[in-house]
Structure formats: structure tokens, C-alpha cells
Specification:
The complex is a heterodimer of chains A (299) and B (253). The relative contact order of chain A is 0.16. In chain A, α3 crosses α4. In chain A, α3 links the parallel β2 and β3. Chain A contains twelve helices and twelve strands. Chain A has two domains: 226 residues, Glutaconate Coenzyme A-transferase (3-Layer(aba) Sandwich); 36 residues, no CATH class. Helix content of chain A is 33%, strand content 19%. In chain A, strands 1, 2, 3, 4, 8, 9, 10, 11 and 12 form a nine-stranded mixed β-sheet that branches. A three-stranded antiparallel β-sheet of chain A has the order 5-7-6, covered by helices on one side. Chain B has one domain: Glutaconate Coenzyme A-transferase, CATH 3.40.1080. Chain B has six helices and 14 strands. Chain B has a ten-stranded mixed β-sheet with strand order 4-3-2-1-5-10-11-12-13-14, with helices on both faces. In chain B, strands 6-7 form a two-stranded antiparallel ribbon. In chain B, a hairpin with a 4-residue loop joins β8 and β9. The longest helix of chain B has 12 residues. The two termini of chain B are 17 Å apart. Classes of the chains: A alpha/beta (299), B alpha/beta (253). At the A-B interface, α4 and α5 of A face α3, β9 and α4 of B.
Chain lengths: 299, 253
């Protein structure tokens, strides 16, 4: 992880650590904080705790998003402090709706100049963000429809269950916007719970979300998404999401937490070792396997 | 009839309103319990759709967020969000969506963006999420919110998700697929918009609630339907399902 972040992140880049509630690569976010990169434009549909922490740590200049919340808990206090009070630094925001962000990544991935969607009519969002516009259909009905511009992050970081050494990546559970974000990005870092042999990937090609073709770096990082979750591997550490609501109430509390859990550990392996055994036991799910499928042997 | 809480009355009211519905777009917490109650009572064919990309969720525990892994395991389909919004929502497959907000006005427009000025907000709220496109594309919208004067306001600080806009035919002029808000479920009363002005009106008071108590919590002179009923209290069966099966820890009592 240290090498991947050092190689592909630099001051001022736009970075998308995606994953909707699940597969959020906190390990990458923490490594970016440790390496002290700054003036980043952070892109994420739901900034979640990972960007709350990164913004409190002062790595970001701007945030592009569609929903600012601690999912199921409440506010993102650090983002709110930055937006409402400029603490620790003012934060520029560019705001869309969920489908608007989905459409932006899709346009970015498909190299389209814009993407049309049925949204924003009658909403105040286009008034708050002049990049949300409308076009008129050139066809018979001449309908006016909302459009959003493409987004092409400099770097996308995608966490998944498994990948091979070439970056061919398989993911199951909430697929979110990871595929579109990866195809839209100029560089892609894949972070996997397990590195598997190519034959494992090729035995189940329908499950491959991201081909190694577009991947620049592969990182093996077990529990790299904690305190979010990885379907079938570990559950969300909801206790931490609740604790964060308290920890993040003031900047001093956050700084103390960052000092202990980010700056105070050299890497994710040490972070995991620092988690209590009870935590890892608590977030371990039971088994629920699918029936095997037969792709057929054709030769 | 045993005692029940205002939250239980909200859950049961929302569930009853889903009678016969096939697809519902749902959030976590109270709406989630309402949908699961509806599935077991008045809407056995109801399928739960979550913006996280899940169709036909069968949550084995109370989901902690709309991205909870229990929504994935056992679901009918889990898909990229591009498919969820593009094929299911925009494709017209969502019959009813449940929404809420920090502020609502008399025409059912919702604010989940800011309190105060957008550029210098007093309180920065979460924002739209999928609510803006859900409000426009779901065939019907049911709103679930606690009745409070600071939430039921004369003028929104920000228009995140369009309801009936300025009332009357103003929403129709947008030429959007969905017909907008039909029902508001609160802890004190139910409201609909069944008048030419498309303005929120009290249709039903929950047991023990007076008209004055409701009017006091609405930030404008609220319309009252010609025939205000008393909401039928939760039945033993409904309460049992909520307390024993759907929310055994009483998180949403």
C-alpha cells in the first residue's frame, strides 16, 4: 500500500475511493494521510467516515459528492466543520444527487461529453451547482432533459474480495459504482482481501468486475476496508461508526484519534493487530454460500 | 387493545398504505420496518428496493444502513447502482417510494440539503442522495416524518426533492413520470394532497390527538379535510409482528 500510494498519489490530484457503504478502502485513506499529501479533490458519492477522517487531517481542498452522512448514524461532523466553519481549512464542495454522480462516472468511463438523466427538474440543485445543465433532445419530442458532465478521477481506489496478480478483480455484494469509477479513472489501484491465482478468476468470469487491463497497482490488504465491510469476509464495525459520532464532535478529539490509529501505526497490518480480538470476532459473518454454476467445458 | 407508541402508529400507518403494492423504494429505520410489516400483512407480494443496488431484499436482521450486508444475502437481485437508477427507477418500475426530510412545505417539497443559506449554511444536511430523482421518477411518493414546527415550514431553506412545487398543476408542467406526494405519515396525524391546489391536508388524527395539537406543529395555516377520521389504532397482530419479529430490540419504539 505504501508503494502504491507513493507512486500514484501526489499533491493536487483528484482521488475517488469508492464503495457504497461496503468495500470502503480506509487502509488507502489512512496511508494518504500518513504520507501527508494535500490539496486533493476527493470524489465519492457518500464521503462516509473515510473522507471525514481525511478532511479532518487536512488532505483535501475540494469534495465532490451526493450524500454527506454517517450511514444509519447521523452527521459527518468533520465535513460539516469544514463546510460550516472552515475547520481545519475551508472546503470547496460540488454537489450532485446519487444518479447524477452515477451518470458522471458513466460519462467519464464511456468518454461522453455529458450524460442525460431524469432528475433535477424543480430542484434547487442546478441553482447550487452550475455544472448541472439541461439539453433539448434533437428528436421529434424535443424533450428538455438534465445533463451532467463526465468525471475522470486521476486515481480510483477500489477494494474487493479478490484479485489476481494482474489486477483482474472479482467483487460480489453491493457493486455500487466501482466498475464505472475504475473505467473512468486515469489510474486504478485495486486493494484485495485475497490475492488468488488467475485460474480462480477464469473459473468464474461473470464475477470479474474490473479487468487487469485498466489496473495499475494491486495491493493485498486483509481488513483493508474496516470499519466498513466486505461481503462474506467481515461485517461493518457498527460500534466504531457509533463511536465516531462522538470522537468526531470536535477537531481535538479527531486529531487524537488520527494520532493513535493512523499516524501511530506504520501500516494496516499494525492497525489490524491493534484491533481487539473481540472486534474481529464480532464482525465475522456466518456462512451463506451460493450453488455452484456450470459454465460448461467446450473443446 | 394494548398501548402503543407514536412510532408504532407511524409504522403501522405506512404499512397499511402499502396495501397491494408490488415495489417500494425504501430507506432504513422506521420505513424499513413499515415495509416488512406490509409484506407480512397487506402486501404479501411487496418487493423492497434500496438505492444501494438491491431489488427484493429479505433482511434477516434490522438493517443498520441502506448498505447493510443483510440486504444482500438472500435478495432477489443485487446490481450496480447504474442499473438500479437507470433500469428500475428511471425505467418506471418503482410504484411507491418512501421519503423524509429535515423540512417539508405545504406542497410536499422536501429539503435535505441545508438549513440557512446554501453558500454559508447554518447546518449542512446530508444532501439529496437519490431523493431528488426518486421524487421525480417513482410513481407515487409517501412521506414519513415526525410532526414538528421546525420541520413543517412555510418556506423551505432549500428545494432538494420536488413535491407538488407551487401546487395546482405546477408539477404537471415539469413533465416528469411520477405523480408526486400522495400521503404524509406523522406521529400525530395523516395528511393527503387530494385537492385541486395539491396542498397538504389533515385527513386522519391518531388516537388521543386533537386537531389543535396538529395545527400547532405546522408552520402554516394547514388545511383540514372535510371528513377527518380517527386513525384505526394498531391491531394486536400488527403490534406483535413489529415487537416480536421486526424490531425485537425496540430500536424504533
Amino acid at each position: 500500500m505504501r508503494e502504491a500510494i507513493a507512486e500514484y498519489i501526489t499533491d493536487g490530484l483528484s482521488v475517488a475511493i469508492e464503495g457504497f457503504t461496503a468495500f470502503i478502502c480506509f487502509a488507502a485513506g489512512h496511508e494518504i494521510i500518513r504520507q501527508g499529501w494535500c490539496n486533493l479533490t476527493l470524489i465519492r458519492m457518500t464521503p462516509d467516515l473515510v473522507y471525514d477522517q481525511m478532511i479532518a487531517a487536512g488532505v483535501a481542498r475540494k469534495l465532490v459528492f451526493s450524500y454527506l452522512g454517517n450511514p444509519g448514524v447521523g452527521s459527518l461532523h468533520c465535513v460539516r466543520r469544514a463546510v460550516e466553519k472552515g475547520i481545519p481549512a475551508p472546503l470547496e464542495i460540488e454537489e450532485y444527487s446519487h444518479y447524477g454522480m452515477v451518470a458522471r462516472y458513466s460519462a467519464g468511463a464511456m468518454k461522453l461529453p455529458f450524460f442525460p438523466l431524469r432528475s433535477y427538474s424543480g430542484s434547487g440543485l442546478p441553482g447550487a451547482n452550475s455544472r448541472i445543465k439541461t439539453v433539448q433532445s434533437p428528436y421529434e419530442d424535443g424533450e428538455t432533459i438534465a445533463v451532467v458532465p463526465p468525471i475522470n478521477p486521476d486515481v480510483a481506489i477500489i477494494h474487493a474480495q479478490r484479485a489476481d496478480m494482474l489486477g483482474n478483480t472479482q467483487l460480489w455484494g453491493l457493486l455500487g459504482i466501482q466498475k464505472e469509477a475504475a473505467f473512468a479513472a486515469k489510474r486504478v489501484i485495486v486493494v484485495a482481501e485475497q490475492i488468488v491465482d488467475e485460474s480462480v478468476i477464469q473459473a468464474d468470469p461473470n464475477r470479474t468486475l474490473i479487468p487487469g487491463l485498466i489496473v495499475d497497482a494491486v495491493v493485498h490488504e486483509p481488513y483493508g476496508a474496516h470499519p466498513s465491510y466486505v461481503q462474506g469476509y467481515y461485517d461493518r464495525d457498527n460500534r466504531f461508526y457509533l463511536d465516531w459520532d462522538q470522537i468526531s464532535r470536535d477537531q481535538a478529539g479527531v486529531e487524537a484519534w488520527l494520532e493513535e490509529w493512523v499516524m501511530g501505526v506504520p501500516d494496516r497490518a499494525h492497525y489490524v493487530a491493534k484491533l481487539e480480538t473481540e472486534t474481529l470476532e464480532r464482525i465475522k459473518p456466518g456462512m451463506a454460500t451460493a450453488a455452484p454454476v456450470n459454465y460448461g467445458d467446450y473443446r | 387493545m394494548s398501548d402503543f407508541t407514536p412510532s408504532e402508529m407511524m409504522i403501522v400507518s405506512a404499512a397499511r398504505a402499502l396495501a397491494g403494492i408490488r415495489t417500494v423504494f425504501v430507506g432504513v429505520g422506521l420505513p424499513n420496518i413499515a415495509c416488512n410489516l406490509a409484506r407480512r400483512t397487506v402486501a404479501p407480494d411487496l418487493e423492497l428496493i434500496y438505492e444501494s443496488g438491491v431489488y427484493g431484499a429479505r433482511p434477516a436482521r434490522l438493517p443498520l444502513s441502506i448498505g447493510d450486508p443483510t440486504l444482500v444475502t438472500g435478495a432477489i437481485s443485487v446490481m450496480p447502482m447504474a442499473d438500479l437508477f437507470g433500469l428500475y427507477l428511471q425505467g418506471g418500475l418503482v410504484e411507491v417510494a418512501l421519503l423524509g426530510g429535515a423540512q417539508i412545505d405545504r406542497f410536499g417539497n422536501l429539503n435535505t440539503t441545508v438549513i440557512g443559506d446554501y453558500a454559508a449554511p447554518k447546518v449542512r444536511l446530508p444532501g439529496s442522495g437519490g431523493a431528488c430523482e426518486i421524487a421525480l421518477n417513482a410513481r407515487r411518493i409517501f412521506i414519513i416524518m415526525r410532526l414538528m414546527k421546525r420541520a413543517f415550514v412555510d418556506k423551505l431553506d432549500f428545494y432538494t426533492s420536488p413535491g407538488h412545487l407551487d401546487g395546482g398543476t405546477s408539477r404537471e408542467s415539469l413533465n416528469v413520470p411520477g405523480s408526486g406526494p400522495q400521503l404524509v405519515v406523522t406521529d400525530k396525524a395523516l395528511f393527503d394532497f387530494d385537492n385541486p391546489e395539491r396542498e397538504m391536508q389533515i385527513t386522519s388524527l391518531h388516537v388521543g390527538v386533537t386537531l389543535e395539537q396538529v395545527c400547532e406543529e405546522v408552520g402554516w395555516e394547514v388545511r383540514i379535510s372535510e371528513s377527518v377520521r380517527e386513525t384505526a389504532p394498531p391491531s394486536e397482530a400488527e403490534l406483535n409482528l413489529v415487537r416480536v419479529e421486526l424490531d425485537p430490540q425496540g430500536m424504533y419504539r
